[in-house]
C-alpha cells in the first residue's frame, strides 16, 4: 500500500507537531511493507526526522507554498498528479481529496468552545474539519472522548473511527544531574521547586484560573515557590498577562517562551508540581511527560484529561481556583501523598508508547484500505 501523510504542522511547536514527528519515526521503525510519501509545507520541516535506515519514504514539498494555500490547493494538485492508495491528513485535510483519506482529530474545542479562537481561525477550522469528517473514509482520534464526540456529533459509523493514542518519548526521565539542571534553569533565572505550566499561552489552557489559584497560595498559604509558565503567546494572550499584573504577581510568575524540546525533561524534573488546568483538550502530553520525569501532577477534570491521567493525578474543577490551590498545596506539603502520586505517575506514563500508536495506526490503515472495495 502507498500511503501519503500530510502534516501541516510537523516541524513546528506544540503537542500535535510532536505527535506527528514521533509517529512518523515509529512507523519507519515498525513497518517494512508499505511505501510512504510525506507532504510538507517547508523543506526544513522534516529535517529533524529520525527514520533510521528504513527506505520507502519519499518527501514532497507542496506548491504553492504557505500553509493555507497548501491545504486548500497544493495537496490536491499533488495527489491528482501522483495518486496514493490512502492519504492520512494529521491535522487538517484539503477541501477536496481525490481518493480515500483518513483525518486525525486532535481536539474538539473548535466545535465545543469556539470562543477560544478568533473568528477567522474558528470559521476556517470548523469548515475544513466538518467537511473532512463527513467525507473521510476513516477518522483517527487520540482519545475515546474524541472518538465518542466524532461518532455522536457527525453520525459516523463507529467501525470507521479508530483510537490512536500518542506516547511518551523515552528521553522523558528524571534528571538529577545538578549541572544539567542549572544550565537550563540558569537561562530562565529560576530555582528548583517551582510550580510549572507548559503549553500555549492562550484562553483554552485556563492560565487565568491557574494564576488565581496561585494567588491564593501566595497570599494565604504563603508559599515561596514561583510559578513558571513556559510557552509561546497565542490567541488572547494579552488577557492572561494582564491578569498577572492585576493580581500583583509579576515578581512571582515567570513567563518564558518555548525552549528546545531537549530541555523539557530538566524543566519537568526541577518542578515541584506540574499544573494542567486546561478547559478543553484532545489528549494532553504534559501530564504524562511530567509523570515520566517523576513530577506529581494536578490536572483539570475537563474533557479527555481524566481518561489520559487515570488515578495518577489529582483532578480538580478547572473553574474552581480554590480547589486547584488546595490540590497543589496538598502535593507540596503532604510527603506521603507526593510519593504515592509520583509512583502512580511512573506506572501511568509507561502505558503510552509511540510504538503502540504506530501499531494502532498501521492496523487502521489496513482496515481503511479494505473498506469500500479496497
Gyration radius from CA atoms, angstroms: 21 Å
Low-confidence stretches: none
Name the CATH class of the largest domain.
Alpha Beta
- The number of distinct helices, counting runs of at least 4 residues, comes to 14
- Quickly count the domains: 2
Please give a structural write-up.
The protein has 374 residues and is of the alpha/beta class. It has two domains: 2-167 and 353-373, Rossmann fold, CATH 3.40.50.2000; 178-349, Rossmann fold. It contains 14 helices and 13 strands. The strands form two sheets. The protein has a seven-stranded parallel sheet with strand order 3-2-1-4-5-6-7, sandwiched between helices. Helix 1 crosses helix 14 (354-370) and helix 10 packs across helix 13 (335-349). The longest helix is centred in the middle third of the chain and has 17 residues, at 119-135.
Please describe the topology of this protein.
Layout: E1 2-6, H1 15-30, E2 35-40, E3 57-61, H2 67-81, E4 86-89, E5 101-105, H3 109-112, H4 119-135, E6 138-141, H5 144-154, E7 161-163, H6 178-188, E8 194-198, H7 207-219, E9 227-230, H8 237-246, E10 253-256, H9 264-269, E11 271-276, H10 285-292, E12 297-300, H11 305-309, E13 314-316, H12 321-333, H13 335-349, H14 354-370
Parallel strand pairs: 1-2, 1-4, 2-3, 4-5, 5-6, 6-7, 8-9, 8-11, 9-10, 11-12, 12-13
Amino acid at each position: 500500500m502507498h500511503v501519503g501523510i500530510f502534516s501541516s504542522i510537523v516541524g513546528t511547536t506544540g503537542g500535535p507537531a510532536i505527535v506527528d514527528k514521533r509517529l512518523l519515526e515509529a512507523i519507519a521503525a515498525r513497518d517494512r511493507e508499505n511505501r510512504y510519501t510525506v507532504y510538507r509545507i517547508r523543506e526544513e520541516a522534516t529535517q529533524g526526522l529520525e527514520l533510521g535506515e528504513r527506505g520507502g519514504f519519499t518527501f514532497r514539498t507542496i506548491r504553492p507554498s504557505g500553509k493555507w494555500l497548501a491545504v486548500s490547493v497544493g495537496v490536491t494538485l499533488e495527489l491528482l498528479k501522483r495518486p496514493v492508495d490512502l492519504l492520512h491528513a494529521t491535522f487538517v485535510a484539503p477541501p477536496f481529496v481525490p481518493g480515500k483519506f483518513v483525518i486525525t482529530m486532535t481536539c474538539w474545542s473548535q466545535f465545543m468552545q469556539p470562543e477560544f479562537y478568533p473568528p477567522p481561525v474558528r470559521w476556517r477550522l470548523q469548515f475544513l474539519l466538518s467537511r473532512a469528517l463527513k467525507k473521510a473514509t476513516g477518522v483517527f482520534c487520540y482519545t475515546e472522548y474524541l472518538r465518542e464526540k466524532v461518532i455522536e456529533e457527525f453520525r459516523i459509523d463507529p467501525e470507521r473511527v479508530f483510537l490512536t493514542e500518542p506516547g511518551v518519548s523515552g528521553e522523558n526521565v528524571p534528571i538529577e544531574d545538578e549541572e544539567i539542571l542549572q544550565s537550563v534553569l540558569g537561562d530562565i533565572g529560576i530555582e528548583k521547586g517551582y510550580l510549572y505550566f507548559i503549553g500555549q499561552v492562550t484562553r483554552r489552557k485556563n492560565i487565568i484560573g491557574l494564576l488565581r489559584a496561585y494567588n491564593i497560595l501566595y497570599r494565604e498559604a504563603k508559599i515561596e515557590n514561583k510559578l513558571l509558565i513556559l510557552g509561546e503567546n497565542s490567541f488572547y494572550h494579552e488577557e492572561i498577562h494582564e491578569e498577572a499584573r492585576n493580581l500583583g504577581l509579576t515578581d512571582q510568575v515567570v513567563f518564558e517562551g518555548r525552549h528546545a524540546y531537549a530541555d523539557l525533561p530538566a524543566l519537568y524534573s526541577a518542578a515541584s508540581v506540574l499544573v494542567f488546568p486546561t478547559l478543553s483538550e484532545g489528549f494532553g502530553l504534559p501530564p504524562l511527560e511530567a509523570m515520566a520525569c517523576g513530577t506529581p501532577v494536578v490536572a483539570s477534570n475537563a474533557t479527555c484529561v481524566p481518561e489520559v491521567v487515570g488515578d495518577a493525578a489529582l483532578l480538580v474543577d478547572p473553574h474552581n481556583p480554590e480547589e486547584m490551590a488546595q490540590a497543589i498545596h496538598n502535593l507540596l506539603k503532604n510527603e506521603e501523598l507526593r510519593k504515592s502520586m509520583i509512583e502512580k505517575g511512573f506506572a501511568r506514563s509507561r502505558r503510552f508508547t509511540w510504538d503502540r500508536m504506530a501499531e494502532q495506526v498501521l492496523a487502521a490503515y489496513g482496515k481503511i484500505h479494505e473498506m469500500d472495495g479496497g
